[in-house]
């Protein structure tokens, strides 16, 4: 989870979501319990693991699965992303000297599946930061091409190693929609409703991924602003 101007630091306590056995399909990771509960509403067969704020409970992740998918809320860096939009990461970037870009698995295919379900989905680079992003730093990251910031995806991708990774973030704040504003309550509730709708698309995407059909629509321009 990351709001570009702040974030809650709790929410996963009491959730025993560890997946110990190897999984044939993907595993969805959420920072907070509220995000996990929302995502679960749309899933029928995919487990959700609460990894905590800044992925501090990443040890809950399974040793083997088909893919790791980070899902939750995020803060827009790009003014073209509005609250309620969904950003599917085409790559996950880390910030700092050791940061590197990790390509995501079939992002345009996933965006197309979300669009099929009536969601406003776009594709672009996501950056994981280690602190709240404000003002000048937000503008700098945007100038470098990142479209959204969170605090977990790069940490999960690092742990994933050779496993395919994906990140799906619902925008709740951004340059024109500050976090610390009365409207955040409304935007948060709306974002939770969007998050609860991403499950069917995730499961269709994962079925294609497992079958090796992820290249079927990667040449399209779906979701690009």
TrEMBL record:
Under the heading Pfam families, the entry gives: PNP_UDP_1 (PF01048)
Question: What SUPFAM superfamilies does its record include?
Answer: Purine and uridine phosphorylases (SSF53167)
Q: EC?
A: 1.17.7.4
Q: Where is the Nucleoside phosphorylase domain?
A: 65-173
GO MF annotations for this entry? Answer: 4-hydroxy-3-methylbut-2-enyl diphosphate reductase activity
Top-level taxon in the UniProt lineage: Bacteria
Keyword annotations:
Oxidoreductase
Q: What class of enzyme is it?
A: oxidoreductase
- Gene Ontology annotations of biological process type: nucleoside metabolic process
The protein, known as: 4-hydroxy-3-methylbut-2-enyl diphosphate reductase
């Amino acid at each position: 989870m990351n709001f570009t101007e702040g974030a809650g630091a709790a929410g996963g306590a009491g959730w025993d979501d560890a997946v110990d056995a190897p999984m044939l399909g993907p595993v969805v990771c959420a920072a907070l319990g509220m995000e996990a509960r929302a995502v679960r509403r749309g899933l029928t067969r995919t487990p959700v693991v609460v990894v905590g704020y800044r992925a501090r409970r990443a040890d809950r992740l399974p040793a083997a699965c088909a893919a790791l998918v980070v899902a939750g809320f995020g803060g827009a860096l790009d003014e073209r992303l509005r609250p309620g939009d969904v950003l599917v990461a085409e790559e996950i970037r880390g910030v700092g000297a050791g940061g590197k870009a990790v390509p995501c698995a079939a992002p345009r295919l996933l965006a197309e599946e979300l669009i099929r379900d009536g969601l406003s989905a776009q594709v672009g680079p996501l950056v994981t930061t280690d602190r709240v992003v404000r003002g000048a730093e937000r503008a700098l990251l945007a100038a470098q091409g990142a479209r959204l910031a969170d605090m977990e995806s790069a940490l999960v991708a690092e742990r994933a190693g050779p496993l395919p990774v994906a990140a799906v973030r619902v925008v709740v704040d951004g340059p024109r929609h500050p976090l610390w504003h009365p409207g955040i309550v409304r935007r948060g509730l709306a974002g939770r409703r969007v998050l609860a709708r991403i499950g069917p698309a995730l499961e269709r995407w994962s079925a294609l991924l497992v079958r090796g059909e992820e290249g079927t629509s990667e040449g399209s321009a779906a979701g690009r602003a």
